[in-house]
Amino acid sequence: MSDNKRIAKNTAFLYLRQLIVMVVAIYTSRVILDVLGASDYGIYNVVGGIVTMMSFLNGALGSSSSRFLTYELGRGNQDKLNRTFSASLNLHICVALIVLILGETLGLWFFYEKLVIPDDRMVAAFWVYQFSIITTMISFTQVPYNASLIAHENMSIYAYVGLYEAISKLLIVYLLMVSPIDKLIFYGLLLMLNSVGIQLFYRFYTTKRYEECRFRLVKEKPLYKTLLGYSGWDLFGGVAVICQGEGINILLNMFFGPIVNAARAIAFQIQNAVSMFVGSFLTAVRPQVVKSHAEGDEENMYSLTFSGMKYAFLLMLALAVPVILEIRYILNLWLGKGAPKETAVFASLVLVNAIFQAWHSGYLMAFHAIGRIKTGNLTGGVLMILSLPILIGGIKIRLKIS
């Protein structure tokens, strides 16, 4: 099968998955907002954000794992592929343990001392926080298995699991509506169990299907050094993304409370629904870019990269602009009067950012393929981090004026 046909096939499978998930998410998010209320919905998102802030290590290592697994698969080196997978899994287990330690020390301090949570919701928020830590730890150790699926370009399994995700989310909504216990705690528990179940299925599937996913003890220091060295600049980029995303979320909570967090969370659901088409397309293109470099076909690598950049940008532009122009109508149709009043502004801003991010994500593919990731992460990361002091200054000026 040619590269273009394979990309088209994998993109179709990913689009099918995302469409199913999106349609269900549009319905379930409205019901969940009604059942939980804006305050509890905001609490869930900001509390989970504390754990997400500690996931920058995982993002950097995940990018490194995906690149090297795809690279070795392109070279056809099965033994090196297995050793790379096992070393990557060891590193992700270490990261999961670090997250557990940080989450139960520094994270808990921040939870109790800095977040704005109503006193009568502290117990519920605490349990949501613990569920988030467990979910995050499991997802960290899952990264090498998912990276192997992407390296093999086996996107059809994502479509099948997407169908299960859709059904399970509908079931979660139903159970939440009829539950006699605290709905915020129950919602956090159900999401944790569902996420862990999906991750374990992926683990079982890849272990049975791909030989390199069978773990073995690896003590090669040069291999660990290579994986960690490559992830260095991705680590900086990951810190920047977390600082911008969850840092802003926490700042908004500290200054304005959980209702504003709910508005921002809804805005990002809209962004995710629009961005998923571009993300699925780039996920299908990325393995071909890395494999072309591994095979020494630089011309094809750059051709795929530039095509990916162009189509990702145009696709995001075509999807985001109509949503921005009709955002208030969409929110009213989707959530009725349940949406916080700040949601429309947040949604428009994050969609404008997503348009430019689509172009940035496209050209990063080539940098990751050839291992030169400093430039993209440095420029993008600095701009993201600068958004925090700008936001703090803007909030303080606005509060003084009012």
From TrEMBL:
Location(s) in or outside the cell: Cell membrane
Annotated PANTHER family: PSMA PROTEIN (PTHR30250:SF26), PST FAMILY PREDICTED COLANIC ACID TRANSPORTER (PTHR30250)
InterPro entries from the UniProt entry: Poly_Biosynth_Transport
Transmembrane spans: 12-29, 41-61, 89-112, 124-145, 157-178, 184-202, 223-242, 311-331, 343-366, 378-399
Organism: Segatella copri
GO cellular component terms given for this protein: plasma membrane
Keyword flag Transmembrane: yes
Name of the molecule in the record: Polysaccharide biosynthesis protein
Keyword ATP-binding annotated: no
Superkingdom classification of source: Bacteria
Keywords, alphabetical: Cell membrane, Membrane, Transmembrane, Transmembrane helix
Topology within the bilayer: Multi-pass membrane protein
